[in-house]
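#struct-pred
JK: can someone run the complex with pyridoxal-5'-phosphate? inputs below
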Amino acid sequence: MNHSQLQTPYFMIDEAKLIQNLETAKKLKELSGVKLVLALKCFSTWGVFDIIKPYLDGTTSSGPYEVKLGYETFGGETHAYSVGYTEQDVIEVADIADKLIFNSQSQLTHYRHLVEGKASLGLRLNPGVSVAGQDLANPARKYSRLGVQADQIDAAVFDTLQGVMFHMNCENKSADSFIELLDSISVQFGHYLDKLEWVSLGGGVFFTWPGYELEKLASALKAFSVKHGVQLYLEPGEAIITKTADLVVTVVDIVENEKKTAIVDSATEAHRLDTLIYDEPASILEATEGAEHHYVIGSCSCLAGDQFCETQFSQPLKIGQRLHIMDSAGYTMVKLNWFNGIKMPSIYCQRTSGEVVKLNEFGYSDFKRSLSQWAV
Ligand SMILES: Cc1ncc(COP(=O)(O)O)c(C=O)c1O
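RT: done, structure tokens with the ligand placed:
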């Protein structure tokens, strides 16, 4: 299938680029002994899990349906975590999870009897330190509800726990700053960790970033696991999927109001939500920074500030022209929504063989069903 025959908007996942990230993950595992579970919150397009499975150890989740999806479509180890479980969630999840991690001591107390004998029991701790660019995504922010703070720990719980989870990084590209967090965890919680079987250090470690000091990270992880006698886990999402997919759109109009805006057949609010939430402009493959023709790449949604980015091109844009919005895999497909009734992007995978495989497509009936199935 030729890409130009595909109707926009669509996501194109590039298998070769995915494998490149996965090879780095494999190297990290080999050097450090860490196990890696894919964070489904970031990426759960299960149509490509057969590519990922040979490299990673399983999945981790943030809600009950992700647990089920990981169990059904990925296999390996299924880790279950939620900021807030209902009793019914715990009952459902305990049967299929290998590890069940509670966010608080109160949830642990209420529901541990539903898990014991079924899954390995874990608790999320909050180290109070983090590396996260934005407060919205900072697990150690003031009044954080994510995990148990060091000064609130009831030491007795560690006698009957198998593991703990920390998550305190967001797109951390520095091995040194991760090691500082690791040292802080060792100092604050080391005496508890010595009693456990496993420790998960969460996600947000950007070990596939160009120039990342992988060996340094690996030796720190290895030393930590030896020191505390635990199996270590990381829960990468973005590191696995970074730079592996484009969102391909078409310019449908060009308007001018002091600046030229190229309006495309997609919207950040519907198809690339984090552009908006974190105010992080997208990058366009066809753009040339500093070139003569300046455009706002505007969404087709009704939201006044909904734009992908402002950038420059060496030639004027034309209506009908396609643009590739790069690095659009993580936290995108999992957040797609039907705002404005905009057509939902299809999802494809470009195999290393050259074949293009369709993973998903959506139509009006999907939109309608998402709103009501039954009328009054
Ligand atoms: C508990 C937990 N684990 C893993 C992740 C995945 O993080 P990332 O996609 O940045 O690697 C997150 C992200 O929010 C998280 O909250």
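RT: quick notes.
Residues 15-241 form a domain with the TIM Barrel fold (CATH 3.20.20.10).
Residues 39, 41-42, 167, 170, 202-204, 235-239 surround pyridoxal-5'-phosphate (CB under 6 Å).
JK: thanks, will look after standup
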